[in-house]
């Protein structure tokens, strides 16, 4: 067990994110840090360190978007860091004042996360600046004010560099984010093409698990990025078209989900003189993937481009179905399924055409009214104190985390004041860097921080033993600073290695003490131990208690998605597009939250007595239930005869009640009630179907088949929820 636990943690520490290094961001951050360092050293400024701190930290805040939003974020961070430097320097002059000041200041800035991710980053920078100043107390009021001015000076240089000398194009982050959506859609279409040609039996389930969550996260990231980019801008052409493209990518994703769900119902390959119609579907899906790749290129590049002319839709499949039907090689239900697949392919092509037309005109002015789209989630102007009031409870994860960080950092400051270790602020910096709102990520980051510091410290010892020329050392520091920022997206451990190498060598160069690497390692070990102790013993709430609520929310979102369909059936009309899109998006986000919670549960360093298989099944079939609902939502009409309406009404009521009971059972750890016989309600495969069920089977065999498929999903969910409460034959150690 210990061997497996060690391997799991080792894999997590060494795991690389599937992204490219941020080379340009690294070079720009290195310039923001290096130029103030050189200037301060050359002019023998007493606050040279604070110039470098201001430039380096402020460069992290620039995440792209409109100039107004970037200026506001960087400027706000600069002011917060400058005030923190002044107050920290003053508090450091009086040890008795340092302890309560740390508790108040760090807790307050850690609580800034109630205002979102950007405020959380600013709060972290303000807190780290404060503890650095606390560890380097000012000699008086004037030197403390000078340190604050130096922070503002370094931050001003970073802002000039980011906004004027080396700006990120305002819409470039948004264009890349939207292009990533089409890239993800292309990957999904290619995977479907491979699967439909006869892959292993569980290939469809594996494809859903691999792709659905990733694509929804990509779409939501693009939505957030585009909203931030458009905020405060009056230009409409490119922003409106990017919004149309984002909605087109979302629509193509929904179309592929419906198509995949229908493809999975096909029987074994048809052999004979006509051939297997699935070959035509596989070719069309590959062509769809190529069209999505064309959209990636069109969205990413600047300038006008010639519109590609894709040659794929559902016509080839319709011809194949007609030949098979004429020869009597397929049943009525098979013909209905294949015809529906052809319809879905044609609709997918229509959505791709809208996206191609929009992408080819992306750089130009808006001369026509854009197609109607859903509004982006813009920042709402809520009262300033509302988020604070909402989180002033120990049930709030933000407040619990802020208190944890504040108390643990205060303990680190107290230890540093008592034992006075060399560069004691490295201990408090480690605490602030490692501690995360959840136990699993904190433990992982602690491992990466400690191991990265040890490796970086050993490299610093090796470098300082043979290279002590100041000019050569400054050149090396520029390279290592650029590397550490460039590698952040790939792996935090790699960032720590080069950050340790950079700041240890810089400290050694400034002090002339070439033995600081072991000090850095020891201080990091102390800070890591404090961070883990604070995480485990201060208001910790295990993911074991959070996960059932997250999973129940996902099941409730499934129920709401189905409710949109059932209301439309009662009216005899297609589902409302806006309500459907919002319900599908809410479901996607709820499922992502549940899957993220489950991963945190697995990463928590503790023994588990509950088997993970039922939990994994519940997560997997929550998505499968949604996929069948997406297929049902793609129907253009539903039979409206009284008998069919009666069958659909009874089925919908039973499904709604069963999903509600299932969500509550998962939330409260109870056994769900027995399910009704959904097959009997629709007259599918039962000895004596009632009149309503028989009417449904005769009028709409394809609809009946899809409803029976939905019933299978809830049966699997129900069985997993029941199995979760049964005693396991043996315990499973997830870590």
TrEMBL record:
Lineage: Bacteria, Pseudomonadati, Myxococcota, Myxococcia, Myxococcales
TM helices/strands, residue ranges: 29-53, 73-91, 97-118, 125-142, 148-166, 450-468, 474-507, 519-539
Topology in membrane: Multi-pass membrane protein
GO CC field: plasma membrane
Keywords in alphabetical order: Cell membrane, Membrane, Transmembrane, Transmembrane helix
Record-stated family: Belongs to the YccS/YhfK family.
Protein name, entry field: FUSC family protein
Domain (Integral membrane protein YccS N-terminal) ranges: 77-235
